[in-house]
Design a protein that fits this description.
Organism: Aspergillus pseudoustus
CATH class: Alpha Beta
CATH architecture: 4-Layer Sandwich
Strand order of the largest sheet: 4-1-2-3-5-6-7
Radius of gyration: 18 Å
Protein name: Beta-lactamase-like protein
CATH topology: Metallo-beta-lactamase, Chain A
Mean pLDDT: 92
Order of helices and strands: EEEHEHEEHHEEEEEEHHE
Cofactor: Zn(2+)
Keywords: Hydrolase, Metal-binding, Zinc
Family: Belongs to the metallo-beta-lactamase superfamily.
Number of helices: 6
Structural class: alpha/beta
Helix content: 10-25%
Distance between the termini: 38 Å
Length: about 325
C-alpha cells in the first residue's frame, strides 16, 4: 500500500519578471540495456541518452551545470568503470565536448560558477577543470562519506579522486549541509518535497533532497519560461527515475535482477519509491510541470523552448540535443 504523503503545497509564483532561470540541455552519450533493468516485466530494450543541463540566472549573473553527463572520452574514467559499467550499458559518447556545448551557448567556461552533481555515479560527472577552471562542485548531504575511498588510491574504486577527494580534487567540492547541521530555513517545503534549498532566494531554482538512488541524491526544480513566455516548472530528476513510466505509474515494480546489494538500480528501494511518488504528485498536481530524466531518449515538452544560437541541434545535426 502506498505510504500517505503530505499534501502538495502550491508551487511559488514569481514575484518579479526576473525570477526565472533559463535551461539548456545537451545530450552527452547513449546507453543501452533491457527495459526490465528499470521496471520488472517491461519488455524490450532501453536506448537512452545521458543529459547535462546548463542553468543561467540573470539577476545574479550565475551560470552552472546540473550534472555533466558522460565524457566524450570514455578513458577519462577509473578502470573499474571502463571494465564493468561502460560495458554493461554499452556506453557510446556523443561527439560534442563540454567545450562545444559552451561555445553553442556563447559562454566562457571561466564564467561558470558551479557544477551541481545530482549524485556520484560515473555517467553524471567527470574531471572538468580544463573546461570550467573557476567552478565549485556541489553535492548532496552524505556524498563525501560514500565516496571517501577514491581511485587511484583505491585501485578498484568507482569514485574518481580528481572529483571526489576534497584534498586532491581538480575543482573545489562542497557538500550541502544536512538538515541537522544546516542553518535555519536552509531547507524548506516546496511542492510535495520536504527538503528543498532555494538556491537563489527568489524561488526560481531549488535543489531537492531526493533520497533513494544513492547517498546524497539530488534533483532540481526550475522555474523557467517557454519561447512564448509561458511559465513552466522543470524537474531535473537525475536518476530518481529511470523510466518515464514511473511518472504516471509510481508503483510500477523495480527491476530486481541486478548484482547490487538491493537487487535493483536504487540503493534504498523504499526511499526511492517515496521520491518517485512525490515526483508523480508534482506532475499531476500542476499542469505546468515537466519532468526531465537524466537518461531519456527525449525530453518532455522540449519543443516549447529555444535552441542556443549556433548549436548543431538547431541545424539538425545528429548527436546534439539542446532545448
Amino acid at each position: 500500500m502506498p505510504v500517505p504523503q503530505a499534501p502538495m503545497i502550491p508551487l511559488p509564483e514569481p514575484q518579479s519578471t526576473e525570477h526565472f532561470v533559463t535551461i539548456h540541455a545537451f545530450e552527452t552519450g547513449y546507453m543501452r540495456c533491457r527495459q526490465s533493468v528499470f521496471i520488472d516485466g517491461l519488455l524490450g530494450d532501453a536506448n537512452v541518452g545521458s543529459w547535462r543541463f546548463f542553468i543561467s540566472h540573470a539577476p545574479s549573473n550565475t551560470k552552472l551545470w546540473f550534472d555533466l553527463g558522460m565524457s566524450n572520452d570514455l578513458t577519462d574514467y577509473p578502470p573499474s568503470i571502463q571494465e564493468r559499467h561502460q560495458k554493461f550499458f554499452d556506453a557510446k559518447p556523443a561527439q560534442n565536448t563540454l567545450r562545444d556545448d559552451l561555445k553553442a551557448l556563447n559562454v566562457k567556461g571561466s564564467d561558470v560558477g558551479f557544477v551541481v552533481a545530482s549524485h556520484a555515479h560515473w555517467d553524471h560527472m567527470f574531471p572538468a577543470k580544463q573546461y570550467l577552471p573557476n567552478a565549485t562542485v556541489l553535492c548532496g548531504p552524505g556524498t563525501l562519506s560514500l565516496t571517501q575511498d577514491t581511485w587511484p588510491s583505491k585501485e578498484d574504486s568507482e569514485y574518481d579522486g580528481r572529483i571526489w577527494n576534497p584534498q586532491r580534487a581538480d575543482l573545489p567540492i562542497r557538500e550541502l549541509p544536512s538538515q541537522l547541521s544546516a542553518p535555519e530555513q536552509y531547507w524548506c517545503r516546496v511542492g510535495p518535497f520536504d527538503k528543498g534549498h532555494d538556491f537563489f532566494g527568489d524561488g526560481s531554482f531549488y535543489l531537492i533532497d531526493s533520497p533513494g538512488h544513492m547517498s546524497g541524491n539530488l534533483s532540481a526544480l526550475c522555474r523557467t519560461q517557454t519561447h512564448t513566455g509561458e511559465l513552466r516548472w522543470v524537474l531535473l530528476a537525475g536518476d530518481c527515475i529511470h523510466s518515464p513510466h514511473f511518472v504516471q505509474h509510481p508503483e510500477a515494480p523495480f527491476g530486481c535482477h541486478l548484482p547490487t546489494p538491493s537487487g535493483c538500480i536504487h540503493s534504498d528501494p523504499a526511499l526511492a519509491r517515496d521520491t518517485i511518488r512525490r515526483i508523480s504528485a508534482l506532475k499531476t498536481g500542476d499542469t505546468r510541470v515537466l519532468v526531465w530524466l537524466a537518461h531519456a531518449d527525449s525530453l518532455e515538452g522540449q519543443w516549447e523552448f529555444d535552441l542556443p544560437l549556433g548549436s548543431s541541434a538547431s541545424k539538425g545535426v545528429k548527436g546534439w540535443g539542446t532545448v
